[in-house]
Amino acid sequence: MPEAPADSHTTPTASTASTTSAPSTAPATSVAPTTPEPSSPATSPTPAPQQAPRTRTRRPRNPYARLFAIPGATAFTVGNLIARLPMGMFSVSAVIMIAGARDSYALAGAVTATGLAATAVVGPWTARMVDRCGQARVAVPATVLAVLGSLSLLLCVRFGAPDWTLFASYAATATTPNTGGMSRARWSHLLKGEPDALHTANSFEQAADELCFMLGPVLAAFLCGALFPQAGTLVGAVLLLTGVLLFAAQRTTEPPVRERTDKAPRPKSPLRTRGMPALLVVFLATGAVFGAMEVATVAYADERGHKAAAGVVLALQAAGSCGAGLVYGALRPSGSPDRRHVLCGLAMAVLMTLPLLAVAATGSLVVLAGALLVAGMATAPTMVTGMTLVQRYAPEGQLNEAMTLAVTGLLGGIACGAAGGGWTAEHVSPAAAYAVPVAAALCALLLSSVRACATSTRRRRSARTRAPSEA
């Protein structure tokens, strides 16, 4: 129970356990004294003082252990992690597979960009259906359709089908459900009324995102190189289907579907919820940080003649973010989520200057790797607080759609940041491209600060309006 830690400081005796009329005075009058009175031995039992130390010495459990002590939590998390790993595999596998077969990186990039655009359109619609009909009823058929699209892409590349079939096949994968969002929705349902535990769960989910996007490209490149060019796409499709089936089978932890009647008003989109559009713009700017940093690092490593090392360097950034996310989740948050979001954005803006300083002052790829490791430590806390705000602003029964919109904004920002970083690297210099993520982080900080100030002002006005009416 959430109240248990607060009660562990009191040590009532057996005589006070049955007294309910005056709990505030019972400890002062009925706790056994240090020297019992001989005239009333029956009123001062000796076992009571011996029980008190056992109650006081109990320590709170590890916050992550508390999460997975919930029945069914481990099972749905394992399935979700299996389904989430391919998210970092598909794009890399498609580029390697298409470029190797058609000898055109331009075609490979255009196909993956088409898939990203299709996901931005179809993803929120799929999430809306999940909210209305339930995770298992929608996620499984949507995943089957996405897997068929991946297999179609594999066969079209293998047997030399026309180029337009590649675009159509990869666009079909846009029905892939937002597995991370569905997992967060389950935690939000299981931990309702426990903000500290939900903070830990969101931190774990962000660390899992970082881990999957760190390991996914490495696994895809290894499979395509060690086995055959289509191996990455094939293994990714199998993992996705297996993981979603395992995840959907855990029905006891699935959030209930909100019942709607014909007379009930049609729910409005999360985009029309106050506070949500401004928050999505912040996600857009945050995504630009990630996209620009990735392109700048690849371009800088290529200029130094170590293009193969770019993946390792970027993996260090993801590792720093993953570790920071786990540490952040173990801490008890203080202050409002709006204030924490601004502070995390400030830390991200400051730390994003480290890679720029590293390439400008030393030009060493090793120093750059260390700078990216430290810089990545601010991204997970920023994303965790952002997702916490999404859960707060999302209309009831539309949490999956709201979080998918946040992910869509993030993907759009990644595309914009990659374009800006690539243009700067080509027309100025790869080192100068590291100024783009700094500018994007400052933009995210400014937008987050304005949004937090507007929210605070609106709450103060609402409080002043309620005060006279209550009086």
TrEMBL record:
Which GO MF terms does the UniProt record name?
A: transmembrane transporter activity
Q: Does the keyword Membrane apply?
A: yes
Could you tell me the keywords of this UniProt record?
A: Membrane, Transmembrane, Transmembrane helix
Which residues span the membrane?
64-85, 105-126, 138-161, 219-248, 278-301, 307-330, 342-361, 367-390, 402-425, 431-454
Q: Where is this region: Disordered?
A: 1-61
SUPFAM superfamilies, from UniProt?
Answer: MFS general substrate transporter (SSF103473)
Q: Does the keyword Cytoplasm apply?
A: no
Specify the superkingdom.
Bacteria
Pro residues composition bias: residue spans? 35-50
Comp. bias intervals (Low complexity): 1-34
Pfam families given in the database record = MFS_1
**InterPro entries from the UniProt entry:** MFS, MFS_trans_sf
Q: Which protein is depicted?
A: Transporter
Source species: Streptomyces alboflavus
